């Protein structure tokens, strides 16, 4: 081969190599580098997520162990705000309180009211740690309305109200009707009154929807 | 004077050797560059990318494992318990103490007045049918209601002489302040 031919072919090959270098750099290396950078970014964000997750898991495990170690308090919360209507228990408590206070129950009618989500944003944010999903995890609160017809003295009514208001299951007395059982002689007549009345008491109690 | 033939040959040989050396150097340089970029690409593709993919998979597995370390049953228990406490807090915040109203009424009733019927309904509305010894007692009783800070409105709907036993019968509607039924003392 002539020297000039060798020289020309070497130059052409060198040029082809340089072109190949540019092609590989821009078409292969650059996208590949971007892919690797993207993977590194994902890995870093996953590491942050993992650290957050591990921290949360530690907190939740602490809460779970506290929850499991305080069964009596958990039971009390369950009595105060039962999961599900538990209407038979509500009626039994009303009868028990009436018996203790000397009121004679004649009838108890019970009706469920519409469930509504509990409006307690302050409690929510405190427990969520600012996650902002608390409104969705608080299960709705339902209520039962009890229409109680009873008979007894005024003192027994006051005792009944005092007990039902401080009962472990929350009862709100929203309405009371009082009527005398028999004709009442005013103080201006015989000077005596008959201390026996019929009561229509409306009480609302709450439960957590299951 | 022309150069001798030997000198001419020597000069021609030297120029050829330099030109060929330059081309060879360019070939070596470009070949070296090519090798380098291929090596970088292979390193990125089969070294870095594989490494970071493995790292990412391992981290994702660790996240999944961490999430699964609290059992769904425990999660459900905690969520339910949290809901119970939040709902209980809400219920207690609005808890009514109706018995307090009776204490208030006893303390704000005139000595010669008693009540025959009583109706308490939502919104703190109270309807009373009272009996009084004299008309002055009725007036005194209404004045007590009107002056009470816990009463937001008083509406006397009628006063009549009692059919039996003498005295006066009156009907009054009160609207009570919510503080009367609240947990704090009157």
Write out the CATH superfamily name of the largest domain in chain B: General secretion pathway protein M, EpsM
Helix/strand class of chain A: alpha+beta
Element pattern of chain B in H and E: HHHEEHEE
Number of domains of chain A: 2
Assess the beta-strand content of chain A as a share of residues.
15-25%
| Biggest interface pair, counts | A-B, 79 and 75 residues
Span of the ends, CA to CA of chain A? 93 Å
Which radius of gyration of chain B do the C-alpha atoms yield? 52 Å
CATH topology of the largest domain in chain B: Gyrase A, domain 2
Give the overall average pLDDT of chain A: 85
- The N- to C-terminal Cα distance of chain B equals 137 Å
Uncertain stretches of 5 or more adjacent residues of chain A: 118-133, 184-192
Count, helices of chain B: 4
CATH class call of the largest domain in chain A: Alpha Beta
The coarse silhouette of chain B is: rod-shaped
How would a textbook summarize the main sheet of chain A?
A: 4 strands, antiparallel
Structure classification of chain B: alpha+beta
Can you write the helix and strand succession of chain A as a string?
Answer: HHHEHHEHEE
Describe the model:
The complex is a heterodimer of chains A (210) and B (186). Chain A has 210 residues and is an alpha+beta fold. Chain A has two domains: 1-69; 77-208, Ribosomal protein S6/Translation elongation factor EF1B (Alpha-Beta Plaits). Chain A is built from six helices and four strands; from the N terminus they run αααβααβαββ. Chain A has helices at 3-69, 71-80, 87-101, 121-128, 134-137, 154-165, and strands spanning 104-116, 141-152, 171-180, 197-208. In chain A, strands 1-2-4-3 form a four-stranded antiparallel β-sheet. Chain A is rod-shaped. In chain A, 22% of the residues are buried. Chain B folds into two domains: 1-69; 99-181, Gyrase A, domain 2, CATH 3.30.1360.100. Chain B contains four helices and four strands, in the order αααββαββ. The interface between A and B is large, with 79 and 75 residues.
């Amino acid at each position: 081969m002539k020297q000039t031919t060798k020289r020309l072919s070497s130059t052409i090959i060198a040029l082809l190599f340089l072109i190949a270098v540019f092609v590989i750099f821009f078409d292969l290396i650059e996208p590949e580098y971007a892919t690797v950078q993207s993977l590194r970014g994902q890995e870093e964000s996953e590491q942050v997520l993992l650290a957050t997750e591990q921290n949360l898991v530690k907190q939740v495990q602490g809460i779970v162990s506290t929850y499991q170690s305080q069964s009596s308090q958990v039971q009390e919360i369950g009595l105060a705000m039962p999961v599900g209507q538990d209407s038979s228990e509500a009626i039994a408590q009303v009868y028990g309180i009436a018996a203790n206070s000397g009121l004679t129950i004649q009838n108890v009618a019970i009706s469920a009211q519409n469930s509504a989500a509990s409006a307690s944003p302050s409690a929510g944010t405190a427990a969520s740690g600012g996650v902002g999903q608390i409104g969705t995890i608080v299960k709705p609160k339902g209520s039962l309305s009890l229409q109680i017809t009873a008979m007894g003295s005024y003192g027994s009514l006051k005792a009944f109200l005092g007990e039902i208001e401080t009962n472990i299951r929350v009862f709100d007395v929203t309405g009371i009707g009082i009527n005398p059982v028999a004709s009442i002689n005013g103080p201006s007549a015989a000077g005596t009154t008959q201390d026996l009345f019929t009561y229509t008491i409306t009480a609302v109690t709450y439960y957590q929807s299951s | 004077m022309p150069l001798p033939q030997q000198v001419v040959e020597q000069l021609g040989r030297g120029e050829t050797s330099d030109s060929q050396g330059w081309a060879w150097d360019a070939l070596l340089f470009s070949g070296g560059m090519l090798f380098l970029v291929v090596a970088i690409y292979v390193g990125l593709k089969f070294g870095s990318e594989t490494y970071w993919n493995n790292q990412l998979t391992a981290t994702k597995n660790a996240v999944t494992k961490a999430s699964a370390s609290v059992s769904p049953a425990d999660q459900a228990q905690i969520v339910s318990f949290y809901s119970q406490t939040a709902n209980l807090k809400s219920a207690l915040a609005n808890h009514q103490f109706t018995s307090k109203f009776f204490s208030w009424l006893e303390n704000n009733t005139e000595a010669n007045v008693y009540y025959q019927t009583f109706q308490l309904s939502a919104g703190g509305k109270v309807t009373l049918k009272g009996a009084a010894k004299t008309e002055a007692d009725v007036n005194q009783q209404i004045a007590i209601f009107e002056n009470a800070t816990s009463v937001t409105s008083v509406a006397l709907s009628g006063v009549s002489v009692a059919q039996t036993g003498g005295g006066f019968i009156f009907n009054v509607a009160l609207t009570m302040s919510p503080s009367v039924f609240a947990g704090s003392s009157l």
